[in-house]
Amino acid sequence: MNIVESIRIALKAIWANKVRSFLTMLGIIIGVGAVIIMVAIGNGASKNIAEQIQGLGSNLLTVYPGYFLYEGDGVGVMRSAPTLSLEDAAALEQGEHIQAVAPMVNTYEEVFLGSGNTQTSIYGTTASYLKVRNKELQWGRFFTDQEVADYKRVAVVGSGVVESIMGSMDPGIIGKNIKIRNVPFQVIGVLQGSSTGFYFEDNTVLIPITAAQLRLTGSKEVQEINVQAVSADDMQSAQEEIISLLRKAHKLGPGQENDFEISNQEDILKAMEEATRTMTMLLGGIAAISLLVGGIGIMNIMLVSVTERTREIGIRKAVGAKESNILWQFLIEAVILSVIGGGVGILFGWGGSALASRFLGFPAVVTLSSVVLAVTFSALIGIVFGVFPARKASVLNPIESLRYE
Hints:
There is one protein chain. The protein is α+β, with helices and mostly antiparallel strands and 405 residues long. It folds into 2 domains: 3-52 and 271-403, no CATH class; 82-258, no CATH class. Helix content is 55%, strand content 20%. Helix 9 (265-308) packs parallel to helix 12 (368-394). It is elongated, with a radius of gyration of 33 Å.
C-alpha cells in the first residue's frame, strides 16, 4: 500500500468521525492561534516601542548630571548633582560630530488662561529644541535664540494643553497670555500633536530656558542636555566628544570620574528590543503549552480510535497488510489532524491578531516565520504524539483482533 492510499484511508476515517476529529483538532487550533497572536503582539509592541523612541529625536544623546549620596536623618539618598549648566551646552556645540544641542529644565506647574486651567509640565529650553527632538508646529512659531538671551516671557504649548484650557483645539490661543505662578507668558506657537504615543508630549509648555531659570526654578542648574549627532554613524564619536568636552569644561583630572551621565538612544532601543524579545519568547512559550495539550488530546483520541478499529486492523492484516502499512496509516492520520488544525489555527491567529490590534492601539505584526514555526510545530506534535497509537495499532495480533467485538 502506497502513501497516497494511506492518506485516502486516513481522510476517510477522519471524515467518518467529523465531530470527534474537530474536537481532537481543537487543541491544536487554539495552540497555533495562541502562538501566532502572542508572537504578533510581541512583535507589534517591539516595533511600536522602537518607533516611539525614534520619535523622541533622531541620533539623540542625552546628558544628565551625576549623582551624589546625600545623608539626612541617618538615611542615605542618591540625589542629582548640580553639574550641568548653559555654559556646558554652549561648549558641546563646538563638537565636530554634534549637529545641535538643546539644554532643558523642567517643573510641574498649574497653567491658567481666563477661567481655564490645567496642571502640566513646564520645560525651559532653547531654540534648538524642535530640531533636536524632531518636533513640528501646528500653529504659530517657536522662540528664537535672541528671545532666549533676552529672558522673554513667551511660550509654545502642546495640543493637550490647548484642549484643556480652551475646551478645544483653537488657533485663537496664539497671542493670548497664559499665567504660570501668576507670571504672564504670551503664547506664540502650538506644537503638532505627538505621533510617538507618549501622552506627556502633548501636555507640555515650552518656554525659554533663561526665563524658566529666573521665574520658576530659581537656579542656573540644567537638568539635562539633549544632543543630536550629525548622523547615526556619528553617535559613538559624538558621545566621545561629549565626554571630552565636559571633562575639560568641568576641569576633571585623569583620575577623576565623570560627574555626568550619558544616555544613548541606540542603547535604550537595544535594551527595549531585548526586553520585548524576551517577553515575546515567554508569551510564545506559554501559548505553546496549549499545543502540547493538543498533542496529548490527539494521542488519546488516536488510542481510542485504535481500540474501536481493532477488528478493521485484524482484517487488513489477515489480507496481507504489513505492520509498517498499519503504522503509516495511523501516523498519517495523526499528522493530518495536526496539519488541518494548524491551518485553521493560522486563520484564527490572523483574525485574533487583527482584533488585538484594535484594542491595543498598535498593530500586532504577524510574521511569516511565526506562521511557519507554528505549522511546523503542529506537524511535529502530530508525529510525536501519533507514534505511540500508530505503533500500538501495528503490533496488534491479527487473530486476537478478528475476535474483538
